[in-house]
Write a structure and sequence with these properties.
Strand order of the largest sheet: 8-9-11-10
Number of strands: 14
Largest sheet: 4 strands, mixed
Helix content: 25-40%
Number of helices: 7
CATH architecture of the largest domain: 2-Layer Sandwich
CATH class of the largest domain: Alpha Beta
Order of helices and strands: HEEHEEEHEEHEEHEEHEHEE
Shape: elongated
């Protein structure tokens, strides 16, 4: 009886110790490939995630090497898989219940997913719609185009100041950060020309500039920044110009008139 109890206790202890190891092996996987056909890697990910993949003809005969010293979760394995495709100039394009694996250049003409800023990161190609608040979309596109990936695209729709960016999601975030840095409010400039009847334009400009400098003890920049150009010829119907010390003012004398 005592021996039976001892054996039973050993078996229970072994079961308890083995359970976490079994769960660990099911939750995390080893992802190591050396010169493996990419089709084999796709098959591995398909079985791991339950996703259905369709491979473009250009995917065939590509070799993949992955070195992972530690086990990874299925989510991490899928992110690694997307990175592998990116290295091979391939990307994933969702199409209903299946996922197409196509060359990145071909993906631009495919039915690429349109995302917002809540979409989880990854290296698949997506389309992001962005509306700059201050900068013109065309000007922003000129800057961002120099920083995009070779197989991506940036299109503008000027009537609504819209940017349409098709890019690997991981790089879209970088482009958006740059856009945020340049999409800032600029100062509007009002220009008024005042023609003088008797005084010299440069002398009047100097006097006004000194007066504004002395009175502006606590200058405050506003959105509207008037520039007064004093010209040397009179105009009887010219209205009076008032300049506040609280405004950023530039006075330019033009004696040619």
């Amino acid at each position: 009886m005592g021996i039976n109890r001892y054996i039973t206790a050993l078996l229970l202890s072994a079961a308890i110790l083995c359970a976490p190891l079994s769960a660990l092996s099911e939750d995390r996987v080893a992802m190591n490939f050396k010169d493996a056909d990419i089709e084999a890697v796709v098959q591995f990910i398909s079985e791991l995630t339950g996703k259905n993949f369709i491979l473009d003809d250009a995917v065939a005969n590509k070799k993949v090497t992955v070195i992972s010293p530690t086990r990874v979760s299925s989510e991490e394995a899928y992110e690694v898989f997307q990175a592998i495709l990116g290295v091979k100039d391939l990307t994933i394009v969702p199409s209903g219940s299946v996922f197409k694996i196509v060359p990145t250049q071909k993906a631009r003409q495919s039915n690429i997913e349109t995302v917002d800023n809540e979409t989880p990161p990854g290296d698949r190609y997506v389309t992001r719609l962005v509306t700059p608040k201050y900068v013109e979309a065309a000007k922003a596109a000129e800057i961002l185009t120099q920083l995009r990936s070779p197989n991506s695209s940036i299109v503008t729709y000027e009537p609504t100041n819209l940017l349409i960016i098709t890019e690997a999601y991981s790089n879209i975030e970088r482009l958006i950060e740059i856009l945020d840095a340049i999409d800032i409010e600029t100062i509007d400039v009002d220009m008024k020309i005042v023609e003088l009847k008797y005084a010299a334009a440069d002398a009047v400009a100097n006097v006004i500039s000194q007066a504004i400098t002395q009175s502006a003890k606590t200058p405050r920049a506003t959105r509207r920044s008037p520039s007064v150009i004093a010209a040397g010829k009179a105009a009887s119907a010219q209205p009076a110009v008032q300049v506040s010390a609280d405004e950023i003012t530039h006075i330019i004398a033009d004696p040619r008139t």
